[in-house]
Design brief:
Order of helices and strands: EEEEEEEE
Shape: elongated
Structural class: mainly beta
Strand content: over 45%
Strand order of the largest sheet: 1-2-3-4-5-6-7-8
Oligomer: single chain
Largest sheet: 8 strands, antiparallel
Length: 171
């Protein structure tokens, strides 16, 4: 479990300048299901608290999508967009994931197969929240230098398959 909170003051124009705060939390659970099956679940929530007209810095707004968020979508591609279609960031975030994995065989205990479903998004307000769904299959290798993960995921909103590769475990 991780959590963080911060407070800041933005200096934009006179009308947009004010205090704001930001909070995020992430909970990840791992469990053994029988002798060979393993499960993993993750939920992440975040919110920026401010008056609506306060100009919060771009880097402190939320975006979703990518290896440790919603697979099947490009890194930080989900959320409110600007006029060019680029993710501009939202004031609220929710993502979640469920994954089921098992070793391919007793002879190769370091090589695993997995199936997963992810959901989440970033948006301006909770009442506008609509999760994007991604699902797929993956390969896990418990290598001597740490865990490696390769996932093939389908993003339902973009209607395309995307390859994701990551190293290590994110806390």
């Amino acid at each position: 479990m991780t959590a963080d909170a911060s407070v800041g003051h933005t200096f934009h124009t006179e009308a947009d300048s004010d205090w704001f705060s930001r909070a995020t939390g992430r909970l990840t659970g791992y469990w053994q299901m029988g002798e060979l099956w393993y499960g993993q679940g993750r939920i992440q929530l975040g919110q920026v608290f401010s008056r609506p007209n306060v100009s919060v810095p771009f880097t402190l707004l939320f975006r979703a999508g990518g290896d440790e968020s919603v697979r099947g979508y490009a890194y930080q591609s989900l959320g409110p967009t600007d006029s060019s279609g680029t993710a501009a960031g939202g004031r609220v975030l929710a993502t979640g994931s469920l994954e089921l994995a098992r070793p391919f065989s007793a002879q190769t205990p370091s090589l695993w197969g997995a199936a997963f479903i992810d959901a989440g998004n970033a948006t301006a307000r909770w009442n506008h929240f609509q999760p994007a769904i991604g699902w797929g299959v993956g390969l896990r290798w418990r290598s001597p230098v740490g865990p490696l993960r390769i996932d093939l995921a389908y993003g339902e909103q973009v209607r395309r398959v995307r390859l994701h590769f990551s190293v290590g475990i994110t806390f």
